[in-house]
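Re: the multi-chain job from yesterday

Posting the exact lines I submitted so nobody has to dig through the queue logs.
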Amino acid sequence: MIIFKTFLKILLKNKFIIITYTAILIFFGCFNTQTNDNTTNFSATKPDILIINKDENKGLTKDLITYLNKNSNIKKIPDKKYSLDDALFYRDVNYIIYIPKDFREDFLANKNPQIKIKSTKDYQASLAEMMLKRYLKTATIYHSEIPNEKDLLESINSTLKVSTQIQMTTKLNTNSLNKMISYYNFANYSILAGCVYVICLILSSFKEKSIRKRTIISSLKSSTYNLNLLLSNSLFALILWIFYVILSIILVGNAMFTPHGILLIINSFIFTLCALTLAFFIGTLLSNKNAINGIVNVIALGSSFLCGSFVPIEYLPKSVTQIAHILPSYYYIKNNELIKKIEIINLKTINEVLINGIILIIFILIFILLTNIISKKRRDFSYQ
Amino acid sequence: MRHNFKYTLKILFQNKALIFWTFAFPIILGTFFNMAFSDIEKNEKLAIIDVAVVKNEKFENDEFLKNALKILSDKKNKDQLFNIEYVNQKQAKKLLVEDKITGYLIVTNKPKIVIKSNGINETIFKYIIEEITTTKKMVNIIANNRLYKEIPTNKISNIENFYTSIYKKILSLKDESINIKDISNKNLSYTMIEFYTLIAMACLYGGIIGMTAINNNLPNMSNKGKRIAISSIPKKKLLLSTVAASYLVQLIGLILLFIYTIFILKIDYGDNIFLIILLSLVSSLAGLSLGITVSCLIKSSENTKTGIILALTMFCCFLSGMMGITMKYIIDKNIPLLNKINPASMITDGFYSLYYYDTLSRYTKNIISLLIFSIILLVIATFCLRRQKYDNI
Amino acid sequence: MENTIEVKNLTKKYKNLTAINDLSFSVKKGEILGLLGPNGSGKSTTINCLLSLLSYDQGSIKIFNEEMTPDSYEIKRKIGVVFQEVAIFEELTVKDNIDYFCGLYIKDKNTRKKYIEDAIKLVGLEKFKKFYPKQLSGGLLRRLNIACGIAHKPKLIFLDEPTVAVDPQSRNNILDGIQKLRNQGATIIYTTHYMEEVELICDRIIILDKGKIIASGTLDELKSLATIEEKVSVEVQDLEEKYLEEIKKLKYVDLVTYQNNNLQITYKKGQNNISHLIDFFNKNKIAYNKIFSERPTLNDVFLELTGRELRNE
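And the result, structure tokens for all chains:
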């Protein structure tokens, strides 16, 4: 009890720094889920394009724009000095089409006018380019047969109207699911950084040489002491976890109460335990208070980058994901991704998720074991 | 004051926490960035899509579709788009469930595509199938048009040859004959921004160096400062040599980071080495002035000051796109003022304009903004530092 | 004799608190002046004002016959200070620390080299030249702190409680060093709240309390301020009440207390007080064990002047 009390006191004394840290994490977390933009979200099927039209908006030109408008998102960005190029670079638009002056006349006069484009050269841009080319191709072919503009447009449109029947098999609400996954993937960073930082900070206070000496000579059994300390820290980790879960409910809403949401919450709980034991292990290993900040950043950022917390795991190079296998975060995030894909939850579909969960638990046990070995060794060496 | 300069260097290099934050941390972070982002743009390029086609009677009879798909899935074709498996419907379903294919095509009355969910590959699959159908329709329309015109003149002798000739004509119209000219800037790799924010972070973190050094010199900040203040060295000389030494340490760190990012991570900073160096010098100066100002404005422990600089830098870097590249763009578009006073944005934008734009006006603007930022902070700092006596120590 | 320091009407206020109140004193060349006073009496503030680190509200300070300002680099060159707090670089070795601070005064490398050796010898850190401060014990750290302050051979040295929390060996070493410095011709201002140290090494003493000088002079002059002259304590078993009354009536006796078989008698004046007392014991056949006689200490002087103990520990 006395250890817990002291723990709380130290926690309160560091409240300012802890609150700041948590606030930053939340801020980043919220922003990350809200601005889940085109760099990570590829489900958009319409490319963002921008049309700079120098021609009169009628006839063929108008028809081309209408066609593009139907099949893509036309962005409106004021044509300032750098705004268009910036928009392209930051993928606000994927494709810019400059329709030259007298395009319509020149085209109808068989002059084959040039259309300039700027492209981000990614999927979306390719799609936009396909569209543009298809229209121009169709128009070119028909024009050699049908010189009359009105008939020409009619033929083009009747041709391009063709659409393929699509059947979708999934019934998942991918939108809120994506949001949830992106939040919980980011939570990898928040939970790790939060746990490791705070717990190391507190442990380092407990471990200050003179205090450590005093506790070793006290009548308290060392195992009891460690257990008490672990329990106090667990309470903190638990509060942190509950906090992030509540935040996710606020951000995502009711979808958190679906079986998928519940699975994500359970997964994050196991991971929080893992982060706790990892933090405890590092805290035992570390003796320098100044080093905490550095260690936290390296561990939390490292795990997050390597395991796909910030960048979707499928976009990481193979070699990186290979390395990531040694980190608990990998299994946590892998589980999030697996949960996203499950359509019906039953023992068979959840099998792989369970295996990853067990791996996380093995990590927990390893960290506890290592902590015990190290703390025993430390005692023998330094203070005989 | 060579003596003070020399010892300031010695003291700064001995400070392990300092060296970690200013030298090692950016390099470690850069390595993470590289690991995470090196493939992301490659993944965005159009890849070959795995699909399946249900082999039923209707499909076998549709020569046009069959031929078109054959061309699109031809491994020798450099524009190969699909990897096609011809299977029965049951197998196709299984492949889809197991995520082995993006979707499958089944021809009933019309071609139908079965997919799992929305996505870019799905869209492209659908689009290509439509294109094939369109071409087919085109042949028909043109044929009708000609038939309508030509039947009365009896020019058509063989109806089959007639269709083939139209089809050949359509196919002969290659992409190249369409007059589209790509005028995009050549450097489009937006992950570079990550590394530019990294440089910005390193420059601003460099402020910690100046902060630590100045702290040692101020009587109201440290005991060492008291001792130095009562020595027979004029304060101006002392501070100048201290600042110069900090700046040098900062630049050494930055050089290491540049060497690492250029030669190991292969980051592209553009071609103009002189301008890169100028920007780095000015950026470091901004970091230095930030450090000095924090050092003399805020009266608290060195750790707190370090914390303040770290947090401030992180926040600035966040706004300039370190945690999500589009952040800078969003801010530029909606709250441009915020990024005009954010040194990390100025630095990032400076490197960005060197990389992306051919003209220098934007680069120059960033250099000037950084200089103004530094000068304002340095003026504030000078006012604080000019004090010789203190009400309180 | 010329004065090294002249302070006139120095006053320093912190918001509501008057830290130094109208202080005037002078320090003669070559003397060790002790600034004595309890914690918070204004000793460090006085020194910081003298050094132009702190601003002050009134008064004038002259050092080496010149007005002391933050830009008085010629004066500063001749001053060395050892602060209460250890002010050294963790990042530098013992030798580098001394070299750095010495280098702020002395440009010539060879002179500096010699001076550093002298300083190291003076504080007895010869074995620790290459050590980092982290590896030194508290006492050794204090010695390094002193070496950093005096390595440039200043003519005027301020020592602000250099012996706080120092082991006896280091303390003796430090006190020896201070006397050596004086013998080399330095003027020294020494603040402390240990009166034993002041009694041991100071030529002249200023006692401060609540920012005011309450007494100053040589040790003997100060002690003469005390109304008592001698303190005698005797170990006596079961002294009867009536003898106590009789002792009180003995010549020059001021105060008598008897507790735990310990008899304490303070005398206002007189000589041969002890022999009178022994005569009295012999006459009345009282058995006694040990007899101590003490001269009054500065603590007694302070006690009489302020009604408080110098050290409230």
